[in-house]
Amino acid sequence: MSTEPQTKTILIAEDSSVILNLTRKILELQKYKIVLAKNGGEVLKQLESNPVDCVLMDINIPVKDGMQCTREIRAHADPKINKLPIIAITGNANNYSMDQFREAGVSDYLPKPLDFDALVRVVKQYVG
């Protein structure tokens, strides 16, 4: 295997292609590898087929919302999946309290519009 061990993979679950592309560019500049899920139905499929180090979870994604996806990840049988850091990204954090995020299993959250410095800082905090 010639992959450098320091390359961490981030799954971005986001349905807005604008935000998705921006987030992906920012994280790729930081040398992260990116896996995408366009809706909640794709999140677990992606996690089961790719080794991922962290999940950026938009709360308002279609099919299954981010809270539901987070609960499914936390309930997953594989510890490599159920222990992943999950960073929620939400445009209406007021709809959820930090307690509700914690109860669902969210590790941390970032408000929209995304502050990309904060994004990089939080991701680094969880995956180094």
TrEMBL record:
The modification 4-aspartylphosphate is found at residue 58. Residues 9-127 form the Response regulatory domain. This is Response regulatory domain-containing protein. CDD domains: REC_hyHK_CKI1_RcsC-like. It comes from Hymenobacter frigidus. Keywords: Phosphoprotein, Two-component regulatory system. The keyword Phosphoprotein applies. InterPro entries: CheY-like_superfamily, Sig_transdc_resp-reg_receiver. SMART domains: REC.
